[in-house]
Every structure is written in structure tokens, then in C-alpha cells.
Amino acid sequence: MEHLLEKLNHLDQLQKDQDSITEKINEIHKILRFSPEMVDKQVDATLIRLRALYTRAKELCESEVSASSALVGLLDGLLQSGTSAAQRKKIEVGEQKKKRMKSDTDTTRFSSASMRSQLDQATNLKGEQVAAKVKSDEEKDEWFVVKVIHFDKETKEYEVLDEEPGDDEESAQKKYKLPMSDIIPFPKRGDPSSAPDFGQGRQVLAVYPSTTALYRATVASNHLFVPPSSIYLLLFDDDEEDGNLPQRAVPFYRVVPLPEGHRQ
């Protein structure tokens, strides 16, 4: 158990280091946009530092994948050691029986199992941050990062908490009840392979840097990191500065597919 805690702490530190690198990258992007005279004077130093930060981000991502894989292996070993031979035999027999079912029965049971799986996954999101459509009208959908408090299997509704402090005391902690269709889980923070493969030009929904709001964006470039990556360079809609759309660095675990029919 001590070894497990040590690996968890190591993974947590890697994730914090990635957040720090992302902030530094965004700071340099701001300098490149708003202080071009400084860039002209220190162009080599600025670009070298930016390249070093991207290189470090890539190294941290690879380390996080290795740490996550090691942790999964350790957990698998602990789980297997707690399963008796009789239990394993029961599972094998159950699988053999399923293979002998008729095709029509298979289809019916698969649909039922699929629904149960979706409900189980929804229940397992308790305590996790997700993307949620908290408001919608004829012209605009509003998506925010919220925390799942509870999932009701009967009504198939999430109860979520908007943890972002409001402008006044009454709006500090807002709760919402939302259907499953208004919730999108984020990729697992410690597992870049859980992120969808977003190629250049793909439209996505992403958290705007230093906020908890999600907006439509376009993947600007994927030549620095091959998706699933640790950082995406995105062009957010309506984010124009001096006639151009700046590229924003966003961690992979804050980017999700663009919902069908999204209005912004």
C-alpha cells in the first residue's frame, strides 16, 4: 500500500508540473502578442525558451503516461491477488455461456448491458469535474466546468456544482440538475491516450485559459505534439486580437468533442 501511495504522489506531482509549464507557455504567447518590441530585441532567447518549455511539456507527458501505466499494473496485481480461483472459474464459465446464446438474445442483452454500462459510468463520475451545458436558449449554449455531486439512476439526471465563485454571496455556489445529454466527461488527466484524436482543423469545445468556461475552438496545429497530446494549440471563436486569432495552449484534459448542434 505504501508503494501505491508513492506512485500516486508521483503522478500528482507530474500533473502539477504540467499545469505550471502550460501557464509559462501562455505567458510567453502574451509577450509575443502584446510586446513585439521585446521580441525583436530578444527573439533568439524568447524562441529558445519557448522551445525548451514545449520540450519539457512533452517529457512530462511521456513521464505521466509511464507513471499511469505502472500504477495500472500495480492495481491490476492487487486486484488479481484478491480474486480466488473459484471466482475466476465462475467468470470463465459465465463467459462460455454468453458465447452459446442465440444471436437475437445476444442483441437484446447487449442493449440492456450497454445501458447498464452507461449508468455505471455516470455513477462513477461522482466527485469528478465534467463539461456541462448549464444554460441553453435559441441563440446560445453555455458550457462550464462543474463537479458531479450525484447521479440519479431513476431519473437519469446529474446533480452538479459550479465551484467558480460568483460576484456576490448568493451566486458563490450554484447547483444544477442536468440530463445525461448535457454532460461530457473530460479525458482522464493522467492518461493522454484517453483523449480523442483531434487533428488539425477539427472543431472542439475547450476550456478557455484561466477560466472555467468552455467555448468552440479549432485545432490550430498538431505538429508539435501528435494527438492524443499533452497540449493543444487552439484558435477560439470570437477571440480576435488586432485582427488575428491568437493560438491558445490548452491541456488535453480540458478539450472535448464539439456537441452536435452547438450554439455560441
UniProtKB/TrEMBL annotation:
Pfam families documented for this protein = SGF29_Tudor (PF07039)
Q: Where is the SGF29 C-terminal domain?
A: 120-264
Q: What is this protein identified as? A: SGF29 C-terminal domain-containing protein
Comp. bias regions, Polar residues = 108-117
PANTHER family from the UniProt entry? SAGA-ASSOCIATED FACTOR 29
Which residue stretches belong to region Disordered?
Answer: 95-117
Q: Give the location in the cell.
A: Nucleus
> Keywords of this protein's UniProt record, alphabetized?
Chromatin regulator, Nucleus, Transcription, Transcription regulation
- Using the record for this protein, list the coiled-coil segments as residue ranges, or answer none: none
Q: What is the lineage of its organism?
A: Eukaryota, Viridiplantae, Streptophyta, Embryophyta, Tracheophyta
Compositionally biased, Basic and acidic residues: which spans? Answer: 95-107
GO BP annotations, alphabetical order: chromatin organization; response to stress
Q: Name one GO cellular component term.
A: SAGA complex
Q: Which organism is it from?
A: Oryza barthii
- Listed InterPro entries: SGF29, SGF29_tudor-like_dom, Tudor_SGF29_rpt1, Tudor_SGF29_rpt2
Has the keyword Nucleus been applied to this entry? yes
